[in-house]
Amino acid sequence: MDILERIREQVTNNPVIIYMKGTPQMPQCGFSNRAAQALHACGFEFAYVNVLTDPEIFQNLPRFANWPTFPQIYVDGELIGGCDITLELLQKGELKPMLEAAIHKKQNKEA
Protein backbone atom coordinates (compact mmCIF):
# COMPACT_ATOMS: atom_id res chain seq x y z
CA MET A 1 0.00 0.00 0.00
CA ASP A 2 1.25 3.46 -0.88
CA ILE A 3 2.27 5.48 2.20
CA LEU A 4 -0.11 8.36 1.45
CA GLU A 5 -2.93 5.86 1.04
CA ARG A 6 -1.98 4.29 4.39
CA ILE A 7 -2.09 7.72 6.06
CA ARG A 8 -5.43 8.48 4.40
CA GLU A 9 -6.80 5.18 5.73
CA GLN A 10 -5.60 5.95 9.28
CA VAL A 11 -7.09 9.45 9.16
CA THR A 12 -10.38 8.17 7.74
CA ASN A 13 -10.78 5.17 10.06
CA ASN A 14 -10.09 7.02 13.32
CA PRO A 15 -12.40 9.83 14.41
CA VAL A 16 -9.48 11.43 16.30
CA ILE A 17 -5.82 10.69 15.59
CA ILE A 18 -2.62 12.43 16.54
CA TYR A 19 0.66 11.95 14.71
CA MET A 20 3.24 12.71 17.35
CA LYS A 21 6.81 12.21 18.46
CA GLY A 22 6.54 9.45 21.03
CA THR A 23 3.33 8.18 22.59
CA PRO A 24 0.73 9.89 24.79
CA GLN A 25 2.22 7.98 27.73
CA MET A 26 5.85 8.74 26.78
CA PRO A 27 6.01 11.81 24.55
CA GLN A 28 9.38 12.62 23.03
CA CYS A 29 8.70 16.29 22.38
CA GLY A 30 7.09 19.09 24.37
CA PHE A 31 4.69 20.06 21.56
CA SER A 32 3.50 16.47 21.19
CA ASN A 33 3.11 16.22 24.97
CA ARG A 34 0.97 19.38 25.20
CA ALA A 35 -1.20 18.38 22.24
CA ALA A 36 -1.81 14.88 23.64
CA GLN A 37 -2.62 16.36 27.06
CA ALA A 38 -5.18 18.67 25.43
CA LEU A 39 -6.85 15.65 23.81
CA HIS A 40 -6.76 13.74 27.12
CA ALA A 41 -8.36 16.71 28.88
CA CYS A 42 -11.45 16.26 26.71
CA GLY A 43 -12.02 12.78 28.12
CA PHE A 44 -12.26 10.81 24.88
CA GLU A 45 -10.08 8.04 23.53
CA PHE A 46 -8.00 8.84 20.49
CA ALA A 47 -5.63 7.02 18.17
CA TYR A 48 -1.99 7.95 17.82
CA VAL A 49 0.96 7.19 15.60
CA ASN A 50 4.49 7.56 16.88
CA VAL A 51 6.22 9.11 13.86
CA LEU A 52 9.64 8.35 15.36
CA THR A 53 9.06 4.60 14.95
CA ASP A 54 7.64 4.88 11.41
CA PRO A 55 10.16 6.63 9.13
CA GLU A 56 7.84 6.46 6.11
CA ILE A 57 5.13 8.38 7.92
CA PHE A 58 7.69 10.78 9.42
CA GLN A 59 8.97 11.62 5.93
CA ASN A 60 5.64 11.73 4.09
CA LEU A 61 3.02 13.05 6.52
CA PRO A 62 4.09 16.68 6.01
CA ARG A 63 3.10 16.47 2.34
CA PHE A 64 -0.19 14.65 3.04
CA ALA A 65 -1.94 17.80 4.28
CA ASN A 66 0.80 20.31 3.49
CA TRP A 67 1.62 20.77 7.19
CA PRO A 68 5.38 20.68 7.85
CA THR A 69 5.57 20.02 11.60
CA PHE A 70 4.56 17.53 14.26
CA PRO A 71 2.28 16.90 16.02
CA GLN A 72 -0.60 16.80 13.56
CA ILE A 73 -4.11 16.24 14.86
CA TYR A 74 -6.91 15.02 12.60
CA VAL A 75 -10.56 15.09 13.64
CA ASP A 76 -13.24 13.52 11.45
CA GLY A 77 -10.74 13.10 8.63
CA GLU A 78 -9.62 16.73 8.62
CA LEU A 79 -6.39 18.26 9.85
CA ILE A 80 -7.21 20.67 12.66
CA GLY A 81 -3.57 21.62 13.17
CA GLY A 82 -0.73 21.18 15.58
CA CYS A 83 -0.04 21.96 19.20
CA ASP A 84 -0.85 25.69 19.26
CA ILE A 85 -4.16 25.36 17.42
CA THR A 86 -5.21 22.39 19.57
CA LEU A 87 -4.44 24.29 22.78
CA GLU A 88 -6.32 27.33 21.49
CA LEU A 89 -9.37 25.19 20.67
CA LEU A 90 -9.21 23.67 24.15
CA GLN A 91 -9.01 27.09 25.84
CA LYS A 92 -11.96 28.39 23.79
CA GLY A 93 -14.03 25.34 24.74
CA GLU A 94 -14.27 24.23 21.11
CA LEU A 95 -12.09 21.11 21.16
CA LYS A 96 -14.27 18.83 23.28
CA PRO A 97 -17.47 19.36 21.22
CA MET A 98 -15.45 18.85 18.04
CA LEU A 99 -14.06 15.52 19.30
CA GLU A 100 -17.43 14.43 20.63
CA ALA A 101 -19.14 15.11 17.29
CA ALA A 102 -16.49 13.14 15.37
CA ILE A 103 -16.69 10.18 17.74
CA HIS A 104 -20.50 10.09 17.67
CA LYS A 105 -20.49 10.33 13.88
CA LYS A 106 -18.14 7.33 13.67
CA GLN A 107 -20.24 5.34 16.18
CA ASN A 108 -23.44 6.07 14.24
CA LYS A 109 -21.84 4.85 10.99
CA GLU A 110 -20.86 1.60 12.69
CA ALA A 111 -24.30 1.03 14.23
From TrEMBL:
Listed Gene3D superfamilies: Glutaredoxin (3.40.30.10)
Entries under InterPro entries matching the protein: Glutaredoxin (IPR002109), GRX_PICOT-like (IPR033658), Monothiol_GRX (IPR014434), Monothiol_GRX-rel (IPR004480), Thioredoxin-like_sf (IPR036249)
Keyword Metal-binding attached: yes
Signal peptide interval: none
Official protein name in the record: Glutaredoxin
Glutaredoxin domain span: 16-80
Organism: Thioflexithrix psekupsensis
Source species, domain of life: Bacteria
UniProt binding sites for [2Fe-2S] cluster: 29
